[in-house]
Amino acid sequence: MAIQLDLIVGQHFRCLNDFEIRPCAGLNFFYGDNGAGKSSVLEAIHCLGLGRGFFRQRSYNLIQHDQDYALLRAEFSDTAKLGWQKFRSGELRLRYNQSDLANISQLLGILPVQLINAHTFLLLEGSPAERRQFIDWGVFHVEHRFLSLWQECQRFLKHRNMLLKKTKDLDLLKLYSQEFARTAEQIDQSRQQWFSSFAPIFHNHIERLLPNLDDQFTLIYRRGWDRHRLLYDQLMSSLDREIKLGSTQNGPQRADLQVRLHNEQVQEVLSRGQQKLVTLALKLAQIELLINAGKTCVVLIDDLSAELDAKHQLLVLRQLQSLGLQTFISSITVPEFFCQELNVATDDMRLFHVEQGRIKNNMV
Questions:
Q1: What's the CA gap between 22 and 29, in Å, rounded?
Q2: 140, 193 Cβ separation under 8 angstroms
Q3: Span 217-234, mean pLDDT?
Q4: Sign of CA dihedral 177, 183, 185, 191
Q5: Lower CB count within 10 Å: N or C terminus of the chain?
């Protein structure tokens, strides 16, 4: 399935005037003053890929205040078409190649998106849920059965937690523990396979971005229960405690991915700029692993210059160039330095000036 976007059209979306963008296959820079609407362009692409904006809780802000809906449409290089429409009532309509999509799960996989912005730091300093989501994105896009397996596991977990809170029926608890453990072990196996491929690629990117520290990093996957025991055995041995707590304490819902330097959490020993480079190594490794699986994605970088000097910005862009990905980048100033240093053909870089919600295509 082609991922390259040839056309993006929007109406009533955030602060943007109605727009039509024809991006190139390489680097697309959107530059302008703060509040001009640069990030909104990237958020529009995010909506097309994931069905929602950057923030789950603020979907109503995607629609202009005097309008009843926001509309986005995209055309791909293989002539496929994707549509997204959000109503103020909360209704979401998705359409792909003249067919309505019943839910967001049917949208996932059509336009894989990797977002790099200020919230990417949550991969280091956020809760384990942020990192589990990162892992599962990678697993899902190389193993599509993973989504249905994950949903099945979540159903068993939900029922088991209800039983722990409301009943002492040990036979039912045993039954749901068996089914939860069965699906959980499969999820862990898929995550383990992803991790074994991901870890060496991550270290390769760390070596390029932080060459003086590359051999001192450790990447650790924790599956959520004792690695020496079957989950079902651990669930049964801790049943009395879980009944008191009213929730399942072991399982894939407790998994985590940790990056350590000298056995310390990186956010406690590295500068903010160095932490940004670690998160970029995580993202770049995820992207490269996807490419190795014969797939691709669109990359969104909101304010690349935050916490990074020009040297490291250029290094990141060169790595993205080498991967051959369509990339959308927001910037306050015209990236003249990159235009000169990257030495790319005109067809592989495009500049868009964003001013008060208006998007204008400038030649490189």
A1: 12
A2: no
A3: 96
A4: negative
A5: N
For residue 275, what are the CA distances in angstroms to 159, 270, 306? 39, 6, 12
Distance of CA 176 to the CA centre of its chain: 31
Residue 2 has a pLDDT of 46
Contact at 8 Å (CB) between 54 and 29? no
Which CATH architecture group holds 124-293? Answer: Up-down Bundle (1.20)
Gap between the Cα atoms of 171 and 185, Å rounded: 21
CA-to-CA separations, 244 to 117, 156, 181, 241, in angstroms, rounded: 41, 19, 20, 5
Mutual angle of helices 272-292 and 128-142, in 10-degree steps: 20
For residue 38 the two structure tokens come to 């640069």
User: How confident is residue 1, by pLDDT bands cut at 50, 70 and 90?
Assistant: very low
Domain ranges of the chain: 1-112+296-364, 124-293
What is the three-class DSSP state of 102? coil
Average pLDDT of the chain is 91
Superfamily of domain 1-112+296-364 in the CATH hierarchy? P-loop containing nucleotide triphosphate hydrolases (3.40.50.300)
d(Cα 344, Cα 231) in Å, to the nearest integer? 52
Mean pLDDT value across residues 30-55: 93
Locate 110 and state its tokens.
Answer: 């059509």
Q: How far apart are CA 74 and CA 64, in angstroms?
A: 20
Distance CA 176, CA 184 (A): 12
Residue given tokens 């996957």 in the structure block: 221
For residues 197 and 322, what is the distance between their CA atoms, to the nearest angstrom? 20
* CA-to-CA dists, residue 54 to 46, 193, 252, angstroms: 7, 29, 25
| The pair of three-digit structure tokens given for residue 49, joined into one six-digit string | 């890929």
